[in-house]
Amino acid sequence: MSEAAPLNVQTADTRVDLKGLPPEELQAFIATLGKERYRTKQLLAWVYGRGATSFDDMTDLSRAFRRELAERARVSQLTEVLRTPSSDGKAVKFLFALSDGLRVESVLMFERNRRTLCISSQVGCPLDCSFCATGKMGLLRNLTAAEIVDQVISVRRELVASGDDLTNIVLMGMGEPLLNYDAVVRAVRLVGLEMGPCLSAKKVTLSTAGHVPGILRLAEDGLKVGLAVSLNATLDDLRTRIMPINRKWPIADLLDAVRRYVRRIGRRVTFEYVLLAGENDADADADRLIALVRGIPCKINLIPYNPIPGLGHQRPSQARIDAFADRLRASHLTVNVRYSKGDDIAAACGQLITETARR
After folding, report:
1. Does 198 carry a binding-site annotation?
2. Is residue 359 a part of any domain in this protein?
3. What is the DSSP letter of 240?
4. Predicted TM-score of the model (pTM)
5. Domain limits at 227?
6. 230 among the known binding-site residues?
7. Do residues 187 and 280 share a domain?
8. So where does [4Fe-4S] cluster get bound (predicted)?
9. Given 147, 279, 298, 349, the catalytic residue
10. For residue 52, which of 70, 202, 258, 300 sits 20 to 30 Å off, Cα-Cα?
11. Start-to-end CA span in the chain (Å)
12. Of these residues, 71, 105, 220, 272, which one is catalytic?
């Protein structure tokens, strides 16, 4: 399996896109205009905090400065194509069009006092996990930092207008975040800006299928995001069959990287385990899972499989789900059974796919 090479977005608009610029780069741009340093904070607040999409919205800037900005810069924006609420009101799926016509999906989830946005990092995914619809698209391209962060800005804008706000971000949408490392890390830092959404890295969870170099790079960079590792099997043969990435980085290598991450960052990790009937849900699987994670500060998220037509997997019975969870808990592991929100709108774990990526 080859890694995804960075795929750049081509655009005819040569103006500087302010969305996606961190403070130091925005300050450098402001300096080229001969403007004062405090203008940087003003623009950061407008772009990332208030979600402005036009310089005309930036009413505390002079008209002359706004005209100059419009000539030299732009503020890119995703186009919302479709919004689909779940029947129980606990999830809303957003379909966004990108500037080149490709489309990605994000999901807003409501749970008690939490407002969690699941965002995408790629258009499609190259990893082809057998239980995930997104992988059937293949990889069309990486998202830019601006496109990643704008999923947050676009959804948050309306929440704030209604007196609400986001509390958490999860990079569990379309794509493998660690195959788009630089853009993802830049976006995480942007959503943490005090003048913006102000969601620190501790409020962001990054889910990986097991990209070992990316995990080690996260540890080296000291970015204290929550790390969720999609494990899903306790034997290499099975994991390779359902997750081809395991051919390159088998379970032992993956767990070694996780241990190094925990030692460096000091946060426990989450192991995600999609339960597939008759494949990875036996008592023996639970016992091997207990042995594999022993000594790693972690919690286990069990995710009963969300059926996807044509993929050939089945969801276990409730009795089997409960028995698997109880066996883990008997060994004093922290276990959550995550019943995905939005399965009626194809917004649950593994279901995100743009049926036609471009229209």
Report:
1. no
2. no
3. H
4. 0.91
5. 79-345
6. yes
7. yes
8. 125, 129, 132
9. 349
10. 202
11. 29
12. 105
Task: Report residue 187 as tokens.
Answer: 């976006």
* pLDDT tens digit sequence for 264-297: 999 999 999 999 999 999 999 999 999 999 999 9
Task: For residue 198, indicate whether it is catalytic.
Answer: no
105 is catalytic: yes
Asked if 31 and 167 sit in the same domain, the reply is no
User: Is 280 annotated as a binding-site member?
Assistant: no
Specify the number of domains making up the chain: 2
**H helix and E strand count, the chain:** 10, 14
Return the percentage of the chain with pLDDT > 90, whole number. 85
Taking 70 as the threshold, does the pLDDT of residue 298 lie above it?
yes
For residue 109, pLDDT beyond 60: yes
124 is in an annotated binding site: no
pLDDT in the model for residue 346: 52
Let me know how long the chain is: 359
- Indicate the residue among 51, 74, 97 that finishes a domain: 74
pLDDT at res. 358: 46
Which structure tokens are listed for 36?
Answer: 């004062």
Residue 132 marked ligand-binding: yes
CA atoms within 13 A on the CB side of 302: 27
Residue 230's DSSP bridge partners are: 272
Token pair listed for 282? 């036996």
Same domain, 57 and 84: no
Q: What is the CATH number of the domain that holds 35?
A: 1.10.150.530
What is the predicted pLDDT for the residue at 64?
A: 96
- pLDDT confidence tier of residue 211, bands split at 50, 70 and 90: very high
* The last residue of a domain, from among 74, 95, 113: 74
Residue 140 predicted with pLDDT over 60:
yes
Q: Does the annotation place 62 within a ligand binding site?
A: no
Instruction: Give the number of other CB atoms < 10 A from CB of residue 2.
Output: 6
